[in-house]
Design goal:
By secondary structure, the chain is mainly α. It is built from eleven helices and two strands, in the order αααααααααααββ. The chain folds into two domains: about 70 residues; about 120 residues, Alpha Horseshoe (Serine Threonine Protein Phosphatase 5, Tetratricopeptide repeat), CATH 1.25.40.10. Helices cover about 60% and strands about 5% of the residues.
Length: about 260
């Protein structure tokens, strides 16, 4: 009896055995992923990376709440008579139930009062805050100096500026120097402009272009033309560099040296 021999094509042989191999690999991958899930999570849930907020030691202040407090403060002070005792008493009452001093709310209130040009109220609120030992920043100093200037209280501005020089000598910003020079220029006080400029030079603070023009004009007003030219040569040359379309370009200043 002849035995029937069965021949399988090579292609069918490969197909029949490739499927189990892929299945085994797939199962092993699934098994590995299940192990990772067990290692990284609890009860089959993948553990999430800790968010950045989990590392904060203090809770963030609610910015919306500080905005409402600021508006409430503005309404309170604007409805008061222009008396120091009345204003300070109302402000103390406003913070009576606060667990910590609301610095952010007061800063926002000062900005609102500044936008509304309520200079007397700006001065009152800022002085009250400083009296509490709070908010002594360069930004608040700048706001108060501007309020002194607009309210024609130059003597108070000078006293406050001297305090800043003695207590924050090495950390005074260029903006604050420019504020004082602008105030003295506004009230036609060239000698004081030159004095503030000398402090800038001593502390190594480079003035901006607008400040340089005020200083040059001050030297011209006092008749010191040589120093006027020296300041121009040092800080305000005929050419300047600007960035145009990603490139540094040399251009001529629109400022004429004979304007001052």
């Amino acid at each position: 009896m002849l035995r029937t021999q069965m021949f399988f094509p090579i292609s069918s042989y490969q197909v029949n055995w490739q499927k189990p191999i892929r299945h085994i690999v797939k199962c092993s991958n699934n098994q590995r992923s299940r192990q990772l899930v067990k290692l990284n999570g609890v009860d089959g849930k993948i553990a999430k990376a800790p968010s950045k907020t989990d590392h904060h030691l203090w809770n963030k202040r609610d910015s919306a709440a500080s905005g409402q407090k600021a508006l409430n403060l503005v309404r309170i002070v604007c409805g008061l008579p222009n008396e120091k005792e009345a204003v300070y008493g109302a402000l103390d009452k406003w913070t009576a139930w606060e667990s910590e001093f609301p610095v952010i709310a007061v800063a926002k209130a000062l900005n609102i009062l500044k936008q509304r040009k309520q200079w007397k109220r700006v001065i009152q609120v800022a002085k009250w805050m400083f009296g509490k030992g709070q908010g002594m920043t360069m930004g608040t100093f700048d706001t108060l100096l501007l309020a002194f200037d607009m309210d024609q209280r130059v003597n108070e501005a000078q006293s406050f500026w001297n305090m800043i020089l003695h207590t924050h000598e090495r950390s005074i910003s260029r903006r604050l120097f420019s504020r004082m020079i602008s105030m003295y220029a506004h009230h036609n006080m060239p000698e004081n402009i030159i004095e503030v400029f000398a402090d800038m030079e001593e502390l190594g603070v480079k003035p901006d272009e607008d400040t340089v023009r005020k200083v040059v004009r001050a030297f011209k007003n006092v008749g010191e033309t040589e120093k006027q030219q020296a300041v121009l040569n040092k800080y305000l040359s005929e050419w300047k560099y600007i960035h145009f379309k990603g490139e540094r370009v040399r251009v001529r200043r629109r400022y004429s040296w004979n304007d001052d």
